[in-house]
Fold this sequence. Notes:
The complex is a heterodimer of chains A (305) and B (324). Chain A has 305 residues and is an alpha+beta fold. Helix content of chain A is 23%, strand content 31%. Chain A has 7 helices and 15 strands. In chain A, the strands form 3 sheets. In chain A, strands 3, 4, 5, 6, 7, 8, 10, 11, 12 and 13 form a 10-stranded mixed β-sheet that branches. In chain A, strand 11 and strand 12 (211-216) form a beta hairpin. Chain B has 7 helices and 6 strands, in the order αββαββαββαααα. The interface between A and B is large, with 67 and 56 residues. Chain A: Residues 270-305 are annotated as: Disordered.
Amino acid sequence: xxxxxxxxxxxxxxxxxxxxxxxxxxxxxxxxxxxxxxxxxxxxxxxxxxxxxxxxxxxxxxxxxxxxxxxxxxxxxxxxxxxxxxxxxxxxxxxxxxxxxxxxxxxxxxxxxxxxxxxxxxxxxxxxxxxxxxxxxxxxxxxxxxxxxxxxxxxxxxxxxxxxxxxxxxxxxxxxxxxxxxxxxxxxxxxxxxxxxxxxxxxxxxxxxxxxxxxxxxxxxxxxxxxxxxxxxxxxxxxxxxxxxxxxxxxxxxxxxxxxxxxxxxxxxxxxxxxxxxxxxxxxxxxxxxxxxxxxxxxxxxxxx
Amino acid sequence: xxxxxxxxxxxxxxxxxxxxxxxxxxxxxxxxxxxxxxxxxxxxxxxxxxxxxxxxxxxxxxxxxxxxxxxxxxxxxxxxxxxxxxxxxxxxxxxxxxxxxxxxxxxxxxxxxxxxxxxxxxxxxxxxxxxxxxxxxxxxxxxxxxxxxxxxxxxxxxxxxxxxxxxxxxxxxxxxxxxxxxxxxxxxxxxxxxxxxxxxxxxxxxxxxxxxxxxxxxxxxxxxxxxxxxxxxxxxxxxxxxxxxxxxxxxxxxxxxxxxxxxxxxxxxxxxxxxxxxxxxxxxxxxxxxxxxxxxxxxxxxxxxxxxxxxxxxxxxxxxxxxx
Lengths: 305, 324
């Protein structure tokens, strides 16, 4: 690939496809996650990272080696990694005396850090400790957030948006009704966030909608909010900007009623109201072949008399 | 009797309905906010902290989750469904939560020259088949690319047309024509890219700069003048324009068989200079160069002193004014 002013020109079709898959698009695909370890990790942190990796497969990469960086002080190495692996979400796990069992959830915009949240794990129950059958990977989970603080506090609002982004999975136009099995439930209370993961059993109820029974499965976390790094408001707004092409095009001259009837508007030329015929008179109707000549009639009458 | 039994039946039916609905209905103070496109539900109801003691916590959370999931499932079941390959599938609506993008949106590319022309004329793109039937090879071949259908450079026999020169190489002619077509295509492609990136390709003689010097402008004028079909011979000059200084041949060569005497003299002189031991030094030139150097150094030194002195003088004046 030849480089010119930072623009790489592909020489083969394969490299061209690779570059196109990484180029910015109108409708973006699923965000990839990179899961990495810090300088020192405990057993809880490593198992927790592995569990989240299994939740997020195949849209995640788990790095095996330890990276001695501090995301809150210097995020350049994180940005470098995200550029190399084309991942815009990251999860950094570390453990030290001051911050034990630390998770940093973060997301990027244009390969620069947008938001970062440091959550400490107080209690963790891993996938292997709960002995039930698991889901196939790639099932789209249902997300439920409980707690009024998710709407009142600014930090929690951003955290909610990040958690939705993190766990929601690929965007699909339709979903198989029998395949709605996985539920992730987040509860925020007293400065703590409880994350639970359940399997949904659809039981028969009398009517069409089934009754739900839940069975605990999967990792369960008790998080406590530590540090945060939020993006400035303008950067946040910039990241949300959608291209104009995605806006639905309005069809002109069509309007809809409350009841659902659609009305159309037809534009006509200006009518000459002097030629308007309000009453139908059979005599005035034009017949084929007959020429109504009003000028000649009186002449004829004169001749006759 | 009949009337009683009818009433009883109705009451029973109502009871049954209520029971059915009881299993899927959930009582909540505030309704949840749903984003069915993302399979998301938000519960804003207050959670009693009493229920969250260590032992009962998990059970409480589970009950809460069950209620919320039931409500979300109720919403999902209200969506229109269709059958896709023996599977019942619910069509999800558009997502309502706005989430940030991964990368900034792509900039729309400006249309190429051909695209502009096609839009103007109303020419639509016609979808063509990949393979074309080749009569000579009696098989299906690509429309373009490796081993294409009608490749005129690959003919093993070319009839020389009557109007052509018999000594001309027809094969080479076809190859050259193809190379020219490829080069022209490449040039147009690069021009389209340059137009898209708004890169200014430098025209002859004048590079885009803020201030053009007198020499550069003069050069640009002379280049523009000579770029006519008759190389500038019939171009009128502007009233105050002077004839170009450096036109004409840059080197003059003597003819091979010319004046023998002058050639002999020149060669002997050269040998004399090479043979002599004294260095060839032009004294006047050397003295002049030395004087110029000295003048330049003095001027530089004066300028430096002047700037320093003036600056200091200015400062003290300012300070005086400030204090006063």
